[in-house]
Design a protein that fits this description.
With 314 residues, the chain is mainly α. The protein has 14 helices and no strands. Helix 11 packs across helix 12. The longest helix is centred in the N-terminal third of the chain and has 24 residues.
């Protein structure tokens, strides 16, 4: 059964999962794109997976099994073709780095000077996808809450964030790039997400996330304080991303890709704590997640596939 395969940390199995999910995502790529953009997309995708994979294998609560690798790989299937857009690919890479580094502060093995890097990379991600700037006030408040560790940590984050923003403003002014100002102001205009019936396929996954959330707080007294704070951070990340998606997505779905890391960690933690008598349930969750994400990615492609087969004659 699938759960038996994923309940252990088998490096070969994890690589197979990543490759198979990536191949499914490749089916969505527009073949008319420039060939050099494929290479950029592949490199950025590989670097992104390096950061995610490395974190999963470092975190004590994730490295024991392959659940997180499974959920992250499957979640990214509908969004892999967006890596051809370098703005999305770089922003996803930078934001995943930011979230991972923030979570590592709760593992008590991170240098407080990394707060500067987190601010820097968040600012750079915001320059590529402007609505991501909404993360700034929340993370600034988080680092201010860590004054007991280092009194300057909040300001290190703030300065790291400020440097790229000031540099961008200076370059825009000196080179008279007024079009950039119009681009960023336009990107930050509210463009409410447009309802798509295919979002109904994500409802079972949303229900699973809610169940994971409820289960965590029913058993949080059994967890260490830093693990509780990490879970709150994951919920905060997910809430901010959903807010950005609701306010700025319009007809774009790529904003949902940013949810990959938080929800894969949350759901994998939930399944990890299910006992042996939940084996059938765990397999249903694992297979169901795959089915709904594949349908979300490919259901709108079905008429094209049917028409293609209709043109084939023997």
């Amino acid at each position: 059964m699938l759960d038996k395969l994923l309940s252990n940390k088998v490096f070969f199995v994890q690589i197979i999962i990543i490759l198979c999910a990536s191949l499914l995502g490749l089916l969505l790529i527009n073949t008319n794109a420039f060939i050099h953009r494929y290479w950029i997309a592949v490199v950025l995708f590989a670097i992104n997976w390096y950061f995610v994979f490395f974190y999963i294998h470092e975190d004590e609560s994730l490295k024991e099994n392959s659940y997180a690798v499974w959920f992250y790989s499957i979640w990214m299937i509908p969004f892999l073709h967006f890596f051809i857009d370098y703005r999305f690919a770089v922003a996803l890479l930078l934001l995943n780095f930011v979230m991972i580094k923030v979570l590592e502060f709760e593992n008590e093995k991170n240098d407080t000077k990394n707060a500067f890097d987190i601010g820097l990379f968040l600012a750079l991600a915001s320059l590529f996808i402007p609505p991501l700037i909404i993360f700034f006030p929340f993370l600034f408040a988080y680092f201010l809450s860590l004054r007991g560790i280092d009194k300057t940590i909040g300001w290190m984050f703030f300065i790291g964030f400020l440097i790229p923003i000031l540099g961008f403003i200076q370059i825009t002014y000196l080179l008279d790039y007024d079009f950039l100002i119009n681009y960023y102001t336009g990107s930050l205009m509210i463009s409410w997400v447009e309802w798509n019936n295919y979002y109904l396929l994500l409802i079972p996954i949303a229900i699973l996330i809610v169940i994971s959330f409820v289960d965590h707080f029913m058993h949080e007294n059994k967890q260490a304080a830093n693990r509780k704070r990490m879970y709150v951070l994951l919920l905060l990340f997910a809430a901010i991303i959903l807010t950005i998606f609701a306010l700025f997505a319009a007809d774009q779905t790529f904003y949902l890709a940013f949810l990959g890391l938080p929800i894969s960690i949350m759901i994998s933690k939930y399944l990890k704590h299910r006992k042996e008598d939940y084996l059938v349930y765990k397999n249903i969750v694992l297979i169901g997640f795959l089915v709904f994400m594949v349908l979300f990615a490919f259901l709108n492609k079905m008429p094209k596939i049917y028409s293609l087969f209709g043109e084939i004659t023997i």
